[in-house]
Write a structure and sequence with these properties.
Belongs to the Glu/Leu/Phe/Val dehydrogenases family. Keywords: NAD, Nucleotide-binding, Oxidoreductase. Catalyzes the reversible oxidative deamination of glutamate to alpha-ketoglutarate and ammonia. The chain is an alpha/beta fold. It folds into two domains: 142 residues, Leucine Dehydrogenase, chain A, domain 1 (Rossmann fold), CATH 3.40.50; 155 residues, 3-Layer(aba) Sandwich (Rossmann fold), CATH 3.40.50. It has 13 helices and twelve strands. The protein has a seven-stranded mixed beta sheet with strand order 9-8-7-6-10-11-12, with helices on both faces. The protein has a five-stranded mixed beta sheet with strand order 1-2-4-3-5. It is globular. It binds glutamic acid. The site of glutamic acid has 12 residues, from strand 3 and helix 11.
Length: 423
């Protein structure tokens, strides 16, 4: 195994987590193992400088990235993250998880991801627009509807995608809606895209709960992160009769024994920008979130949140990974030994990229589907993906994560093998 010169040897990094996950699937790949090293090598990584004129006239520089991890099965696909802690290595891991995710769902894409090291909350709307446009222009040579299709992720949204689409279109001289997904619906976006990731968490969560004999109605749920994924998941589980007892975001942690009133909390969040100050639940200490009693945990924030210590003390029976890479490899082992079922990120949060795929197809054909058609197709794809991964896990006697990797890596490496090496 070769080690990349531009990667740190930090044990808890997202890239190390990804490599450890790949290591676990190797025994199940048979002859395809010959090609497995390709999974450890991102195909292409672009680092760009983004000089930005601030509203006060000063100029600041931001670091941006676009990584195409693997393109064996199709164009690159994956979001763009605006976050102050983004690094090249993190984006590499996120792009690799997209490769696995698209293959696990059998979407005709490779994996890619982008990011800018910036706190978007500190920028004015005009600064955010200029940053997005310059970033898009800088990565313009490697993206495109047939090359690599960005989408929203942490810190970006439909408006950011509209600016990206416009900038790319201006540069190539033709309106090119299919260059990004997650756009506003009136600009070639897809109905159902905004809610798709949360909806996927809910669909796979209900199916997984049923399989392990857990009743979703009246179950107790804890959710970390109340962004797009966390809030939609919270809403759907709440509507299904579950009690959301604990919620954590960047501003604090809330707890209510009988379940938090989710519509009231989301209204509060819309008005105040965070959950801080919401009085219809008790504010508790950050670390106590992990010690409360609940049946289902939904990490829907950033990577590396479920550490070994936290895995040892968790009381739940089911973990639904709304975030990408929330569980460290050591914690994964502890959860397995404690018979806590983990629906891995590459299946659980794949609803977003699945509807992104629908959006891309709709843009190509210029024919748009109804929301119920989209939701039905999404439900079917997610159910079938979970079913086949569950079957694989049972037959190999491995975790759902390793089973998902087995299904995905087989598809990726078959494509690699059959395409062969050029030249
Ligand atoms: N950022 C989302 C993810 O991590 C969606 C990516 C996409 O739609 O391309 O899966």
């Amino acid at each position: 195994m070769t080690v990349l010169s531009y990667v740190s040897d930090q044990a808890d990094s997202a890239w190390s987590t990804y490599l450890a996950q790949v290591e676990r699937v190797l025994p199940y790949l048979g002859d395809l193992t010959r090609w497995a090293d390709t999974l450890r090598h991102p195909k292409r990584a672009l680092i760009v400088d983004i000089p930005l004129e601030m509203d006060d006239g000063t100029v600041r520089h931001f670091e941006g990235y676009r990584v195409q991890h693997n393109l064996s099965r199709g164009p690159g696909k994956g979001g763009v993250r605006f976050h102050p802690q983004v690094t090249l290595e993190e984006v590499m891991a996120l792009s690799a998880w997209m490769t696995i995710k698209c293959a696990a769902l059998n979407l005709p894409f490779g994996g890619a991801k982008g990011g800018v090291r910036v706190d978007p909350r500190e920028l004015s709307i005009k600064e955010l627009e200029r940053l997005t446009r310059r970033y898009t222009s800088e990565i313009g040579s490697i993206i495109g509807p047939q090359q690599d299709i960005p989408a929203p992720d942490v810190g970006t949204n439909a408006q950011v995608m509209a600016w990206m689409m416009d900038t790319y279109s201006m540069n190539v001289g033709a309106t090119t809606t299919g260059v990004v997904t997650g756009k506003p619906v009136h600009l070639g976006g897809s109905l159902g895209r905004v809610k798709a990731t949360g909806r996927g968490v809910f669909i796979t969560g209900v199916a997984a709960a049923q399989r392990i004999g857990l009743e979703v109605k009246q179950s107790r749920i804890a959710i970390q992160g109340l962004g797009n994924v966390g809030s939609i998941s919270a809403e759907l589980f709440y509507q299904a009769g579950a009690q959301i007892v604990a919620i954590q975001d960047h501003s604090g942690t809330l707890y209510r024994e009988d379940g938090i009133d989710i519509p009231a909390l989301l209204a509060w969040q819309r008005e105040h920008g965070s959950i801080a100050g919401f009085t219809q639940a008790q504010a508790i200490r950050h670390q106590d979130f992990w010690l409360k009693t609940f049946d289902i945990l939904i990490p829907a924030a950033l990577e590396g949140q479920i550490t070994e210590d936290r895995a040892r003390s968790l009381t739940c029976r089911l973990v639904l990974e709304g975030a990408n890479g929330p569980t460290l490899p050591g914690a994964d082992d502890i959860l397995r030994n404690r018979q806590i079922t983990v629906v891995p990120d590459v299946i659980c949060n794949a609803g977003g990229v699945t509807v992104s795929y629908f959006e891309w197809v709709q843009d190509f054909s210029s024919f748009f589907w109804s929301e119920s058609e989209i939701n039905q197709r999404l439900d079917t794809i997610m159910q079938e993906a979970l079913d086949s991964v569950w079957l694989k896990a049972d037959s190999l006697k491995v975790t759902l994560r390793t089973a998902a990797y087995a299904v995905a890596c087989e598809r990726i490496l078959m494509a690699r093998k059959d395409r062969g090496l050029y030249p």
